[in-house]
Amino acid sequence: MEKMFKTSEVTSYEIASDNVLNNRLFFAYKKAAEMVHGNLLEVGCGTGKGLTVFAERCAHYTAIDKNTQLLNHLSKLYPRFTFIDCFIPPFKGIGNDAFDVVVTLQVIEHIEDDHYFLREIKRVLKAGGKAIISTPNIHYTLSRNPWHVREYTPAQLKVLLEQYFPGQVVLKGVKGSAAVMKYHEQNRRSVQRIMRWDIFDLQHKLPRRILQVPYDILNRMNRNKLMHQDSELVSNIGLEDFSLDDNPDLCLDLFAVVTK
Fold this sequence. Notes:
Layout: H1 19-33, E1 39-43, H2 51-54, E2 60-65, H3 68-77, E3 82-85, E4 99-105, H4 114-124, E5 125-136, H5 154-164, E6 169-176, H6 178-195, H7 202-205, H8 208-229, H9 231-236, E7 242-245, E8 253-259
Parallel strand pairs: 1-2, 1-4, 2-3, 4-5
Antiparallel strand pairs: 5-8, 6-7, 6-8
């Protein structure tokens, strides 16, 4: 599936140098799956990673994304599920108070109008329903990511979510082990060496869409370089190297659970 379809910031389980990021992202899916039940909506399903952990935990699974070819493929693989192809927001074709749980992992940072996005999540949730939202912690971002419209500090995300789910926001984070943080530090130093060539600070001055292709190329080169330098560190990191922590300021990703 991953060879056939391209999504933004795509990673591959077949590329060894992606191992750390793949486990970091999949850990969030595993934690979200523990809270999934009833009628589930996944906003931004990508290549369908969530299906492997969500499918047996909900009465019905609905996914919404903007990749027509990919969604057609997934609908053939999973004919009992519902796949909606559209740009978001809004969530076209979805009625009010329709879902017990909404899961949207590493999506909100891509959305131009994050307020509209959250209003739509609230609209489609049933009373008492929960939404699980993850996004990078900007404190640990190593360079501008041109695929992202914005990134958040923990405080910024909490304030934003409280506007739509007042008093109903639990904000945690995905924390890495000592091995993960060693890799992160190696990555930080490597990115800094690359950024020395950006003497005009073009990463912050050019439109982000112009930077997406060079960003992907340099990102892939950097991950491969880190794998070559310390292959044992990269390959030995697994799901057990990540945990959900109550202090999001110390975490690589933010992990919020809100209740309508």
